[in-house]
Amino acid sequence: MPPGAPVLVSRRVFRKRGVPKPAASAFGNGLAATNIKFGAAGADSERHATPQLFRAAQASAGHTPPDPPVALLSAFCKRLAGLPRPVLLLIGLGLVVAIGGLDYVTGPHVALSIFYLLPVMLVAWGTESTGYGAAVVAATFLAAVISDYHYSSPAVALWNAVVRLAVFGIVLYLMREVRDLVARLEEQAGLDELTGVANLRAFRDVAAREIERSRRFQHGLSLAYIDIDDFKGTNDRLGHDAGDRTLIALATLALATARSVDTVARIGGDEFVIVMPETGADAALPLVTRLREAFPRVSTIGDAGTTCSIGLASYGRAPDSVEEMLAAADALMYQAKAAGKDRVRHALLLADSSRGSAPGRLLPFSPQPRA
What we know:
By secondary structure, the protein is an alpha+beta fold. It has 2 domains: 7-64 and 194-363, Alpha-Beta Plaits; 68-189, no CATH class. The chain has helices at residues 28-34, 50-60, 68-81, 85-106, 117-127, 130-149, 154-189, 200-217, 231-238, 240-257, 281-298, 322-338; strands spanning 7-9, 221-228, 263-266, 271-277, 300-301, 304-305, 308-315, 344-349, 361-363. The two termini are 22 Å apart.
């Protein structure tokens, strides 16, 4: 395709749920003519097919249905976390009153102290607040004093209540530690270990949410697909430490260039994406152009700076799936590589109507080679 040729794009060809290979996609007149595929002119020979990577990742990491007990517990916790804190506190206090009344009626012959842990743990975990949990612990202290005072001396009732208070206080402390640990693990599970940006799993979650928001509120959505040029050659010539520094440099630059509402993720070896919610072509293209122009200056390795190729897919109305959006940006990135690398290939994708396919929109494209 000549560098100044327009790109004709329609979403109709991405309607299929599976991710089509860029070589087989009838991606408008412009992309079909290029016949982008593995081993195409200008493309890195080390590059793997992204759709296949996605299918493998989806099957092996985080997309298998959970066991029924785990699913039920997860659904209960989500429903619990959705309740307002005062409501959860009232539920916990109500349970304390109910257990305390039963404890008073049954007397010391039936031990019910362990059941006071239920409202304590329910409120502490559901509200994510040790303070709310402490309020329920204080209620259990009063319930213990009242229920035991009827059957024993005041000193014994007070001692039992203090012991129970100490045990429940330890439970609250341990729950806070577990909650903090779970939060840290969840954060780490969504981050790429080397670069510190979001990983593939986090990208899929964010992209799915943004697609849903875009379709609901009719907002624009853009996705930039970034691939480092000749990255395998860099690793072979200069070693993997140099390659790691290049990846970190690109991730740092992408974070500095992107806005606070954008999400930067590493989804492959040298492949990064930027999800730009509520962003059309006018705002997305200057952003990724600045990134492409700045990358050689921050990633200087050896005698020459490393470059990157970027495919940018902008939607007036979001696609049906993450795979569809990613395949569009990936195919555009392949075009940028086939056109000589160190370029941005951009296209505006329009929504199809439910009957028939809408015509694509001609979007003039002028490559901006590095000076």
